[in-house]
Each structure stands twice: as structure tokens, then as C-alpha cells.
Amino acid sequence: MARFSKVKLFFLLLILCSQSFIYKAKSNTIRVGKNKKIKNIHYAILIAKPYDTIEVNNGLYKEGNIIINKSLYIKGINNPVLDGEKKFEILSIKANNTIVEGLTIKNSGYSTLDDPGAIKVYDATNVIIQNNILIDNFFGIYIQFGKNCIIRNNSLQAFGKEEQQIGNGIHCWKSDSLLILGNKITGHRDGIYFEFVTSSTIRGNISYQNIRYGLHFMFSNNDSYIGNIFKNNGAGVAVMFTHKVKMYNNYFINNWGDAAYGLLLKEISDSYIVNNHFVSNTIGIFMEGTSRINVKNNDFKNNGWGMKIQASCMDNNIHENNFINNTFDVSTNGSLVLNIFNKNYWDKYDGYDLDKNNIGDVPYHPLSLFSMIVENNGPVMLLYQSFFALLLDKSEKVIPSLTPTNFIDEKPLMHALIL
Amino acid sequence: MNRLIKFVMLDIIKNKTILGYTLLLSAFAWSIFGLEDNSTKGVLTLLNIMLLIVPLVSIIFSTIYIYNSSEFIDLMVSQPVKRNKIWISLYIGLCLAQISAFIVGVGVPLLLFVPLNIALSMMAVGCMISIIFIAIAFFASAITHDKSKGIGISIMLWLYFALLFDGIVLFILFQFADYPIEHIMVGITMLSPIDMARILILLQLDVSALLGYTGAIFNDFFGTILGALISSIVLLLWAILPFYISLRIFNKKDL
């Protein structure tokens, strides 16, 4: 037994040594720049061997489409600019273990047929794209069939005016185990777009003033997004047809407009929405066909509707949240209630707490009659803020007869949670 | 005529009721904006109170005032003054008094706490509502000699515009829920100056996004120059028409 493991160890060492030897022997640095021997990136890639480093010095490079077909470390020194002249896809990464760092990439081509991006990854694993600045591209960073890729600290800016004429900031399709960290995305169609992407993490990104969604998310199971800020996007954030999503510590701010949502959930199940802040959205969370979601410790502030929960939702547990200063805290479109509200703080609650345990002694009905009527008949919103609507609500509060009696928070909190 | 208007105005100001009205309005406005840190919410609350109290005070006070000045009217009619002039000066005097009370009471806090464009339109709408309900008061008091009957009619009219009309709107919306009646609703709201005023203000606030599809249709109409023109003409008609009818009645009336 001992001998066997000694042999094993020997081979292991041998392999390690040979590996490191190969790396040390073959990894070269190729410098590209105006004052260097090699003037263009194309040529540098041509002569490079796998695992070489290409240092791109500052300057303007108009080289059309650059295809990276071997594992290379491409490093920009002092922000070199790669210009696609509005005609080409700029960087196409087709090799595993590639790193792209410190480049400024701008003016990619526009085509709805093959979706050119500033940086596009085709079928590659272990690609790292970091510290780049992307300006005025059709798609920013596009990953298809990627695995174990990291997109970190990039800044993406586009100037889209209409949905059809601009691509997404970070677009990921059919990928697995991606890390999207600390990027800043603005002016694209969707800030971050996920379709069929699994086991990935989106963390610490800021997505603002995008034309459609800050984050658009479909058929992407087992993902988590943590500590992101989604601000002033045309329609907020949409998460659809997915299960096992974790949403922690995100900010959904100022997604305001006729069809804007802080967070739109459609056909979502077995997910967590914890510790998020929904501030000044037309609708904080819109839920449709959602089930088994744990909504906990969220802050709903200054929204038109805090939550809109359609009757198609079931077994959602909404507990220990703050509902402060919303026009309507919650609303629903049917009398069937299969969700649980518990221990939330409602600023409109006017009950009392005799035993001083911070839980109101009278259950709270968060649904106002007017909001329910509006849900069934949209145009009734015309009577919003009229004396008549006020009277309806007050009389319903005294004698509830039309609102579902089981839409109730049995243990409303007396004081807001500190979140 | 100017002297008549001046006399009516001074008489109303001496009355002290108008002073109380000013104080009431300013107490509401200051306390709302003092307590509410969100100015949009403040505007909404003020709008709510304004659309309830301003019509009520305008219509009741004016009706009572017209009946109380019947002796003064009799006296003036015996002088070489045209009946037209007496009635119009009475109207203008009342309007000026009420408008100034409103502007002093609500205008100052509005200008201090609310973005200028919204403050100005709130004030414009408030003044229009005052004028319209004074006109309606003239109408109510012209059609009957009996003071208690006249005041009764005024109260009924106020109830109708402040409350019943919205009930009817709700009824219509539910009866015709299956039909695209949004465009027709634009026309129907014009039948009530209070509703029109409320929607005109709502459309200028951020909360208009809550109105959804219907709000968009209303915005399409009221947002255009033509729409703005039509809505102000309609509001003016509301101020002129009831008064004109009352003027016709007054001219022929056996005092």
C-alpha cells in the first residue's frame, strides 16, 4: 500500500514538474504597439503560441474582426482602443483559457442576423474578460456555449434609442457556471441577459438607464444574483420561466413608467427573494404563475404598487417585509388566495399592541377595495384619489365584504424592520 | 359697474366668513406639507381636500350671499342700473373674493413646497373650480325664490358633483367593462368639473403612470395642445353656462 502511494506520488511530481517546465519554457510575451516591432494584433495572434501573453500598448487599432483561436492572455497597457468602425464584430474568442484585460473596445458593427458584439465568446471554457471599457457597441459582451467564464469589472456604455436598434450589454446564452461581477452597464437594450444559463452568479453589478430591462433572465435555473443595483431601466428586471433562483441584497430603484416593474416574476418556482430594496417603482414585484417563493426581509418603499400578486400564484411565503409609503401595498386579481403573509410591517396598519410584543393584536387586511376593483377593471383607476374611492375604501375597512377575507396578515408588526 | 364690484368685494371681506375660509385652507395646506415629506403625496392629499372643500364653500357661501343681498339687489334695480350689470358685478365680486381667499390660503405653501408647474396648475384649477361653483350657485339661487329651497338645491348639486357623479362613472365602467369605452370616458369626465380638475392634476404628477392604459389615453388627449385647449374651453363653459342661464332668468324675473 505504502509502495503504491509512493509510486503514485512520484508520477504526480513528475507530471507537475514537466507541466511547469513546459509553461516556463514556452510562455512568451509579445508586445504590440506603434513603437514596437509588431504593429498589429492580428499578426501577434498569428505568431503567438498557446499560453503566450500579448501586450497591446496604447494607441488606436482598426483591425476589423480579431479572432482569438488559441489560449492567449491579451492585456491592454494604458487603455489601447480597438475600433470596429461600426462594421465588424471586434473580438471573437474561440479558444479556451483566454484572458482579455484592460482594453477599450468601441463601435462594433450592427446586424440583427449574426448579432456582432464587442467581445463574443464562442464555445469556450475558462475565459476571463476583465477591466475593459466598452463604448457604443451593438452587443457588449456576448457569451454563447461558455463554461466557467468570468466577466469582471467591465464598464459598458451604449447610446441606444430604440429597442430594435441596440443589443444587450452582457448577453449569455446556453452557458454554465458564469461569474458576472462588478460590471457597469448602461444604454443597452437589456443590461444583462441570461437565457439557458445555469449555475451562475451575478454579483455587484450596476445596470442603469437601459432601454428595456436592467436584467432579463429566462430558462436559467440555479442562478443567484446578489448585491446588484438596477436603476432607471425602461422596464426594470424580468425573471421568467426559471426555478431555484436566489436574489439577495439587490436594489431595484426608480423603474417608473406605464409598463415598468421593479421585478417581474413569471413562472418562477422554488426561489428566494431576500433582503432586497424596492424603491420608487411603478410596481415593486409583479408575480404571475409563481410558486413556492420565499419573500423575506425586503423593503418596499414609495412604489405605486408594493406587490401585485396574480391569483395564479400559490404557496408563496411573504414574511417580515416592510411596506412603507406605497400607493397600494398589495393587490390581486381574484378572490383565491393561496399565499401566506406573515409578520410584515405595513405603514397603513392602525391596530394596537396591548401586550407590547411588537406584533399587532388585530390582523391586517392589506388589500384595499379600490385596488381590487382596479385590478378587475383597469379604467376605474380614473377615480383614483376621488372622494368616492376614499369612501369605498373606508367603508370596506370597517365592514370587509368584497375583499377576500383570507388575504390577511395575522401578525402585522408594529414597527418597521431595520434592513 | 366697477364701483358695484368694489362694493360687493368689500362687503364680502367685511363678512369675515371669507377670512375664516382663507385661514382654514392655509391651515390645511401648511399642515399637509409640514407633515408629509414627499411633495407628490402632499399634492395628492391637498388635491383631495381642495376638491371637496372649495366647491362646497364656493357654492354654499355664494348661494347664501345672493339670497342675503336680495334687498341690496332690489335697491339697485330701482336705480338707473341695468339688471345685467347688477348680476354680473355680483358674480365678479364673489369670484374675486373667493379666488383671492384661495390663492392666499393655498398658493403660498404650494409655491414653497411644490415644483412650480404643478403649483401653478393646482392654483389655476382651484380658481376655476371656485368660479364654476359660484356660477352654479347663481344658477341655483336664480331658479327659486325660496332661500331654503335654493340652499337645498345647492347642496344637492354639490353632492352630485362631489360624490354621485363618481358613483355613476363607476357604474358605467362596470356595465360596459367589455367594451373599449376609454375614449368615451374622456368625454364623460368632462361632465363633471371636479373630475376633470382631478384628472388634469393627476396627469401632471408621477402617479399618472399608475393610471395605466386609460391614463395613457387621457394623456394623449389632455397632453396635446388641442386637448389642453378643449379642456380649458370646457372648464370655461362650466363657469359661463350656469351663470348665463341664471342671468337670463334674473333679467326676466319678477322681483
What does it look like?
The complex is a heterodimer of chains A (419) and B (255). In chain A, 12% of the residues lie in helices and 37% in strands. With 419 residues, chain A is mostly beta strands. Chain A has a domain at 27-234: Pectate Lyase C-like (3 Solenoid). Chain B has one domain (2-252). The two termini of chain B are 21 Å apart. The model of chain B has no long low-confidence stretch (mean pLDDT 90). The A-B interface holds A 256-258, 260, 282, 302, 304-305, 325, 327, 373, 377-391 and B 38, 41, 44, 47-48, 51-52, 162-163, 166-167, 169-170, 173-174, 177, 181-182, 185, 189, 195, 198-199, 202, 206-207, 209-216, 218.
Q: How are the secondary structure elements laid out?
A:
The complex is a heterodimer of chains A (419) and B (255).
Chain A: H1 2-26, E1 29-32, H2 41-47, E2 53-56, E3 60-61, E4 66-68, E5 73-76, E6 81-83, E7 91-93, E8 99-101, E9 104-106, E10 117-122, E11 128-130, E12 133-135, E13 139-144, E14 150-152, E15 155-157, E16 170-176, E17 179-181, E18 184-186, E19 192-198, E20 201-203, E21 206-208, E22 213-218, E23 224-226, E24 229-231, E25 236-243, E26 246-248, E27 251-253, E28 261-274, E29 277-279, E30 283-288, E31 291-296, E32 299-301, E33 305-309, E34 317-319, E35 322-324, E36 328-331, E37 340-342, E38 345-346, H3 369-376, H4 387-398
Parallel strand pairs in A: 1-2, 2-5, 3-6, 4-7, 5-8, 6-9, 7-10, 8-11, 9-12, 10-13, 11-14, 12-15, 13-16, 14-17, 15-18, 16-19, 17-20, 18-21, 19-22, 20-23, 21-24, 22-25, 23-26, 24-27, 25-28, 26-28, 27-29, 28-30, 28-31, 29-32, 30-33, 31-34, 32-35, 33-36, 34-37, 35-38
Chain B: H1 2-14, H2 17-35, H3 39-68, H4 70-78, H5 83-113, H6 116-143, H7 147-175, H8 182-189, H9 193-204, H10 212-222, H11 225-252
Helix pairs in contact in B: 1-5, 2-3, 2-5, 3-5, 3-6, 3-7, 3-9, 5-6, 5-11, 6-7, 6-9, 6-11
